Structure prediction request, 239 residues.
Amino acid sequence: MEMTNDPVGAAILDFMAGNRKAKIVVESNLTEDDEIKVSYLFRTPEEMPELELLALEQCRGRVLDVGAGAGCHSLALQERGVDVTALDLSGGAVQAMLEQGIKQVLQQDLFKLAGQRYDTLLLLMNGIGIAGDLEGLERFLEHAKTLLNPGGQILLESSDILYMFEEEDGSVLLDLNAGYYGEVIYNMRYKAHQTGEFKWLFIDPAILEDYATTRGYTFELLYEGEYGNYLARLSLPKA
Prediction:
């Protein structure tokens, strides 16, 4: 029976097979439906935003590219001679990365990964969203300690989406009974494929810093964009 829960992987493979106009539909509880052009997942370093280029420059040692998707960041690092492993849950994405020549690819749930140590965990395109919610962020930060060498770092991109709750007069309207405003519910669709609803976390850098430092990391803000997005480094102490 054909798998119908891998929209990203199916779209990536369709793109590689010649469907250059493939798009993934993104539904959320915050906004109207959006679309991701699959071509964007295959961007070259020349097409990457400044934040991503900075993140690639900051990678060191053994790198784990978490949620690697079509593998554009892993490819860029591999071409620089970096020891990088691309990790993704999507079987289609993993197949696509192998076909593109990425040497080290894992189809794995990050939270179940064990027995490996890295110097850098790279989470771009709001990769920290995999935490799902604030409780998941705590779980992620603790699990990351088991994957990092002493002195290891997490390079992550996220956004403070408070602006999405602003009224025309500049005030902010939040439902205080609905939990943290950065916990968003998504569903992704492509043809017959859909993920089903899942939580995705957008985290205010001040809250991220509090959670990280409480758990033994140092926090450094490396880049701030115009629309609340940022690149942060969380580092563990050296042995």
Summary: The longest helix spans residues 134-147. The domain at 7-235 is CATH 3.40.50.150 (Rossmann fold). The helical segments are 7-16, 50-58, 72-79, 91-99, 134-147, 205-214.
